[in-house]
Amino acid sequence: QVQLVESGGGLVQAGGSLRLSCAASGRTFSSNAMGWFRQAPGKEREFVAAISRYGGITGYADSVKGRFTISRDNAKNTVYLQMNSLKPEDTAVYYCAARGTAYGGTSYSEGHYDYWGQGTQVTVSS
């Protein structure tokens, strides 16, 4: 079992930056591929970024490529999402997710993730 707690959300002006953190409980964190997803009001949840279990492989949605960076520190059981050049359309609740330990690779599909955090709100003002 993995429990995930996101932090770092808030209100920022367009063009600004935020760094989200996701702290994971459990001794298997280094065996879990991780992902970030987001859900804007009235929209379905969508993929943002993913990272493999050891951090060697990352993937991004086209809408955030070049602006967001996912990383992880397995010694701290934490995954990060550095968000730069934020736009109003990035406003959403951001969720951290973990895949089961049998799957070390990245995935863009939320159905491939077994554990989810409660989410953190990011609001970008114009």
Walk me through this protein's architecture.
This protein has 126 residues and is mainly beta. The chain has no helices and 11 strands. Strands 2, 4, 5, 6, 9, 10 and 11 form a 7-stranded mixed sheet that branches. A hairpin with a 6-residue loop joins strand 5 (46-51) and strand 6 (58-60). The protein starts with a strand and ends with a strand.
Rounded mean pLDDT score = 94
SSE order, one letter for each helix or strand: EEEEEEEEEEE
Structural Rg: 13 Å
Q: From the helix content, strand content and strand pairing, which structural class follows? A: mainly beta
Strand content: over 45%
Question: How many angstroms does the end-to-end distance come to?
Answer: 40 Å
Shape category: globular
Low-confidence stretches: none
Annotation, overall tally of beta strands = 11
Gist?
With 126 residues, this protein is mainly β. The chain has strands spanning 4-7, 10-13, 18-24, 34-39, 46-51, 58-60, 68-73, 78-83, 92-98, 115-116, 120-125.
Which descriptors apply to this entry?
126 residues, mainly beta, seven-stranded mixed β-sheet, 45% strand
Topology:
Elements: E1 4-7, E2 10-13, E3 18-24, E4 34-39, E5 46-51, E6 58-60, E7 68-73, E8 78-83, E9 92-98, E10 115-116, E11 120-125
Parallel strand pairs: 2-11
Antiparallel strand pairs: 1-3, 3-8, 4-5, 4-9, 5-6, 7-8, 9-10, 9-11
